[in-house]
Amino acid sequence: ITSTNVSLSCISEMRDKLRKWREENYRNSEQIVDVGEELLNEHASKLGDDIWIIYEQVMIAALDCSRDDLAWSCLQELKRQFPDSHRVKRLAGMRLEALERYEDANKLYDSILQDDPTNTAARKRKISILRAQGKSSEAIRELNEYLEQFVGDQEAWHELSELYINEHDYAKAAFCLEELMMTNPHNHLYCEQYAEVKYTQGGLENLELARKYFAQALKLNNRNMRALFGLYMSASHIAASPKVSAKVKKDNMKYGAWAASQISRAYQMAGRGKKENKCSVKAVEEMLESMQITMS
Amino acid sequence: MLEDDSGVTKKRTLQLSSMSVSFRSHEMGEVELSCLAYAKMYLHASQFPRCSVNGLLLSSSPAGGDVCITDCVPLLHTHLSLAPITQLALTQVDAWCSQTHQRIMGYYQANACVSDSSPTPCALKIAEKIFEQCNNAVLLMIDGEKMFPGCRVPPIVMYERKDARWALKDKHTIMLRQWEETCAIVNQLFSSGDQALLVDFDSHLDDITKDWTNQKLNAKIMELISPANGNV
């Protein structure tokens, strides 16, 4: 396909795709490289000022796919256009990271921070390097220090919660998720993750909290299957506990039964007309049945 | 004696005949890994290169005697160490196994950090649970550093229960029949694009119309396994 044969609407479609992926922060790097490489190689003249942000987007995607050739050429274009830019320097650092030249990358980020100590992007790259090297406790320490200064950085709070979960430090992970829920009260994913952490911590109190937050996640998004299953499981476990009052037992059996019927319904609908789903539908039904038996 | 990257000395017999890797030992505790199970594990790890992934190893052969891992169920690629979804998956796979005359006899995991393929506390915990029900359970770690085209060795490290801990399993007791054919099948799945058919439990929860038992993918893989191969 030469540039004369590809219609302008086709080009604008590709640009729209790239923009959507940029705005939604998707990491579909193979697709970005596919679309982006064609746009840059064949239709660069038609991209206007967008071309620079596309170079950046494609470069990062190229690093993700081990396409150093493409990443390098994008970087050269950006360096030529923005010779003293910290933003471009950060991209050069990311390329060094991809090549596992962590010391060189750190030197680059340190030079940015010397020039501009408030440069959060460089700080976060340094933390990512610690993570890539498996230095979890140091990454956690640096991230905590970072958050003392930049307390509103959602991405950082979430990253920290992931690190704590990997280290099995559930109490601290819960704390991070509490911060996220406070600032993002409509985000069902944070509620559901918080509930999962509480469930994992175990014990009656945590199970009840888990149930409440699974229910909250469902209120925010009634199609969140993890929340639905979570509600079912936490309610069932509470009802089965010898330590609860008759009223609590009754209430939780009610919640559990409601969740079970919702799950059943969802799977019936999903299984409709699809032969290959019979297995998963059957498995769910059996599970719901067996848990009923242990509860009563 | 050969030293690998971690500095651990491993005895490796490079007896690569064209048909199979590692020779049959007459010792007890031999484990065979089927093409189907290997292919799906490999595809799972490849589908989520930036995440830790895990799954369950299944056997349809009767308990006692030689062990054959005949299939696997890919489970998670997020939050491996959180309890609810893991518990849910174990329960459902259990139910499916009893319907299909299989049993859970192992666990596999591939770490996000490619340079470290040692079992994490989470892996040990789940393997422990499986061991409670199955006394020749195995723990399989996928070695990401050996997952590249043309690698002549299976990218796996297996552990078994010995003296109340998980010990490295002698490579001589791990059987992968028709190794080169298995590699060819995996390559074929990538070139045909069929590797995208793989569904793990996490993906199933994102869209419950997706089948975590992977019937469609299983059929494609069985088609590719030559009829002469008794490894089903």
Q: Write out the strand line-up for the largest beta sheet of chain B, numbering strands in chain order.
A: 7-5-8-9-10-11
Q: Indicate the low-confidence ranges of chain B by residue numbers.
A: 1-27
* Tally of separate helices of chain A: 15
Tell the overall outline of chain A: globular
Shape of chain B: globular
Distance from N terminus to C terminus of chain B (CA atoms, Å) equals: 33 Å
Give the N-terminus to C-terminus distance of chain A in angstroms: 68 Å
Question: The biggest beta sheet of chain A, please?
Answer: none
Please provide the ordered H/E string of secondary-structure elements of chain A: HHHHHHHHHHHHHHH
CATH superfamily of chain B: Cytidine Deaminase, domain 2
Indicate the CATH topology of chain B. Cytidine Deaminase, domain 2
Strand content of chain B: 15-25%
Write down the CATH class of chain B: Alpha Beta
* Structural class based on helices, strands and sheet pairing of chain A: mainly alpha
Rg calc of chain A: 25 Å
Strand content of chain A: under 5%
Can you walk through the features of this model?
The complex is a heterodimer of chains A (296) and B (232). Chain A has 296 residues and is mainly alpha-helical. Helix content of chain A is 78%, strand content 0%. Chain A is built from 15 helices and no strands. Chain A has helices at 8-23, 29-43, 50-64, 68-81, 86-98, 102-115, 120-132, 136-149, 154-166, 170-183, 188-201, 204-220, 225-240, 246-271, 278-295. Chain B has 232 residues and is of the alpha/beta class. Chain B has one domain: Cytidine Deaminase, domain 2 (3-Layer(aba) Sandwich). Chain B has helices at 35-47, 83-99, 121-133, 179-192, 201-206, 215-224; strands spanning 2-3, 9-10, 20-21, 31-33, 53-59, 67-69, 71-76, 103-110, 138-142, 156-162, 165-168, 174-177. In chain B, the strands form three sheets. In chain B, strands 7-5-8-9-10-11 form a six-stranded mixed β-sheet, sandwiched between helices. In chain B, strand 1 (2-3) and strand 2 (9-10) form a beta hairpin. Chain A binds chain B through residues 27, 132, 134, 165-166, 168, 193, 195-197, 199-200, 202, 210, 225-226, 229-230, 233-234, 266-267, 270, 274, 276-277, 279-280, 282-284, 286-287, 290, and chain B through 50, 79, 81-85, 87-88, 91-93, 95-96, 98-100, 113, 115-116, 121-122, 204-206, 208-209, 211-213, 215-216. Chain A: This is ER membrane protein complex subunit 2.
